[in-house]
Structures are given as structure tokens and as C-alpha cells.
Amino acid sequence: MSVEGTTILLAEDEPLLAEMYRDFLIREGYNVVHATNGEQALQLINEVHPSLIIMDIMMPKMNGLDVARSVRKTPDTAAIPIIIVTALVNQIEPLRQLLGPRDAYLIKSEVLPTDIIAVVKKLLGQDAVSTEATPSLGITSQPTDTPPAPAPAPAPQPKTD
Asked: Terminus of the chain with fewer CB atoms < 10 Å: N or C?
């Protein structure tokens, strides 16, 4: 799947983070629409019908969880994948209950913009993301409590006599 014509709604009220995420997404070829608060995000979601939403939880006027709930209740927007990027580790359980298999949550302190790009591509079916390589990304379609696979046994060494 090509990124050409793919619009992403970025809902982030922190200007420096918003600019950094936007720049990385644009460099990858995505069209980016930016909202600085939850009400604006919801309005733009209904106007633009983005291919994917990247959203903070703590935003003015309406928080990201309420925006996500509204998106999921509306038939026209219910299937849009959502990536929640949050610093609120204590909100993980409500996120797990709200988000579906086409969604993800990321902890801001644990990810780089390149990680966000990888998850965007995975959720849009544009690239594969190895959850073994990125276990902290909170991709909800993968079990989060499954232990990692054991490392392969070392190859036997030839005998020297």
C-alpha cells in the first residue's frame, strides 16, 4: 500500500512534539492535519476522515480518551485506526479496553518518532513491524503478557583433535 494520499490526523497540544511528529510523518510522504485540542480533533476527524489518528490523551477542551470513544461510537469513523501516544502510564488499562486490534498505544518516554512511523505503517498495512524488536510499543493486536521466545541454541563447535 502506498502512502500517497494517506492523511493522518495528529492531535497533540505540545507544540514541539507536534512539530517533530509532523515533520517525520511528512518526510515519510503522509499528509498531516494537526489539531491542538480534543474538540478540534473531533471536528477534523469528521471533516477530513483521516486514514489514521495519532492522539495524545491530555489535551485541552476534550481529552483523547473521550475523542477516541466518540470516534468508536460513530459508524463513519469507527474503523479508523488510532494510535494513542501518552505519558500517562496509569491510563493503560482504560486504553486496552477502548482500543481494538487495529489500534495501538505508545508511552511517550519509551518511543522515538521512528517507532511511531513503524506503527503507523503496520496499522495501515504499509510495512511489517516485528513486535519482538519493539515489545514496548503496545501494539494491541499482539499479546502483551506473552514471554519472548527463547534464544536459539548455539551451533555445535567442530572437534579439533
From this structure: C
pLDDT band at residue 32 under the 50/70/90 scheme: very high
Nearest to 139 by CA among 52, 79, 81, 87: 81
Q: At residue 8, what is the residue type?
A: I
C-alpha dihedral over 37, 41, 44, 48, to 10 degrees?
140
| pTM for this model (two decimals) | 0.73
Q: Domain residue spans in the chain? A: 7-137
Contacts of 64 (CB under 8 A, 6+ apart): 11, 38, 41, 55, 56, 57, 58, 84, 86
What average pLDDT score do residues 62-69 get? 88
Q: How many residues appear in the chain? A: 161
CATH code of the domain occupying 7-137: 3.40.50.2300
CA distance 77 to 114: 26
CA dist 68 and 2 (Å) reads 26
Q: Across-strand partners of 85? A: 106
**Pairing of the two strands 52-55 and 31-35:** unpaired
